[in-house]
Amino acid sequence: MTDIAPVPIVDSRKGRSPGQSATLFMGKYGALIVLALLVVVFTIMEPKYFLTWGNIVQIFNQSALAAIVSCGLTLVLAANQFDLSVGNTASLSGIAVAALLIAGVPIPLAILLAVSIGLVVGLVNSLLVTRLGVNALVATLGVGSVAVGANYLISGGAAQPFGAYVPEFTQISVGTWLGIPKNVYYMVVVVAVLWVLLNRTVLGRNMQAVGGNAEASRLVGVPVRGVTTSAFVICSICAAITGVLLAAVVGSGQATGGDGYTLQAFAAAFLGTAVMREGQFHILGTVVGVITVATGFNGLAIIGVPAFAQFLFQGLVLIAAVSFSTVARKLTRAG
């Protein structure tokens, strides 16, 4: 009888330098560490207000719309694509719903048509990327520019206030249920649906498979084009929903109202890759990323820092998150 020698288990972590181990640690827990540091620092600087129930609810309220567009973007990123048109799509849907309401279109139909803009934008993005082979960055940047043009064609660049025509529309977003702002409920519903979609459905698993290796997925029968199209469409619909809710909050359509969500969504999604996973896009990580960015904005505003500091903070968060995410993915793949 021949003895079978046990196969030695090689722990690849032993070969890593302290710097690589620290990078992997930050790549897995960095967002949570940043969030904890922000809470501690702002609590020390504003002990009477920052960590109160009212301000915590305010942070979640500030996170709500950004979370909806960011989680939609997460699907596209999980499929290894990019969508730079999300902010412009949100602005366009906000302007569209305002213009439709002013024109006398019933509220449900106006919402449906505005959200349908997201469907069209998503289909165009996916057509350019999956059928024509245009790079996703270039395609979605171009589609975003077209959305800006359509936006100015409708509005002339001016705000579209609808309060005098349909004041009840603002009640969709303004106000609370059981003391919690309505937009927080919308955020929870969208996050829950997208989490189930990405983690508990065949479509979601296919998105992650395509993001990991599109060619290998194709060889095992995954419909790569269909999966990528679904990711783009869902992402753009989430952006359009955000635009409609933003218009309800503001009481008017704003020509550039949703543009800022592009950078915020990317910052949150990449920051979310440093939440319990090493460089992977996932819904709960993105939510933590959104809350981290919102906590930073909220704390900076409370301590009276000028507005430019918020943009510096957001840009630095995006750079740091992308850097750690990229390096962590490389180290993880290298074993």
TrEMBL record:
<feature type="transmembrane region" description="Helical">
    <location>
        <begin position="63"/>
        <end position="82"/>
    </location>
</feature>
<keyword id="KW-1133">Transmembrane helix</keyword>
<feature type="transmembrane region" description="Helical">
    <location>
        <begin position="260"/>
        <end position="276"/>
    </location>
</feature>
<dbReference type="GO" id="GO:0005886">
    <property type="term" value="C:plasma membrane"/>
</dbReference>
<feature type="transmembrane region" description="Helical">
    <location>
        <begin position="136"/>
        <end position="154"/>
    </location>
</feature>
<feature type="transmembrane region" description="Helical">
    <location>
        <begin position="94"/>
        <end position="124"/>
    </location>
</feature>
<feature type="transmembrane region" description="Helical">
    <location>
        <begin position="224"/>
        <end position="248"/>
    </location>
</feature>
<feature type="transmembrane region" description="Helical">
    <location>
        <begin position="311"/>
        <end position="328"/>
    </location>
</feature>
<keyword id="KW-1003">Cell membrane</keyword>
<keyword id="KW-0812">Transmembrane</keyword>
<dbReference type="Pfam" id="PF02653">
    <property type="entry name" value="BPD_transp_2"/>
</dbReference>
<keyword id="KW-0997">Cell inner membrane</keyword>
<keyword id="KW-0472">Membrane</keyword>
<dbReference type="InterPro" id="IPR001851">
    <property type="entry name" value="ABC_transp_permease"/>
</dbReference>
<dbReference type="GO" id="GO:0022857">
    <property type="term" value="F:transmembrane transporter activity"/>
</dbReference>
<feature type="transmembrane region" description="Helical">
    <location>
        <begin position="283"/>
        <end position="305"/>
    </location>
</feature>
<feature type="transmembrane region" description="Helical">
    <location>
        <begin position="184"/>
        <end position="203"/>
    </location>
</feature>
<protein>
    <recommendedName>
        <fullName>Autoinducer 2 import system permease protein LsrD</fullName>
    </recommendedName>
</protein>
<feature type="transmembrane region" description="Helical">
    <location>
        <begin position="29"/>
        <end position="51"/>
    </location>
</feature>
<keyword id="KW-0813">Transport</keyword>
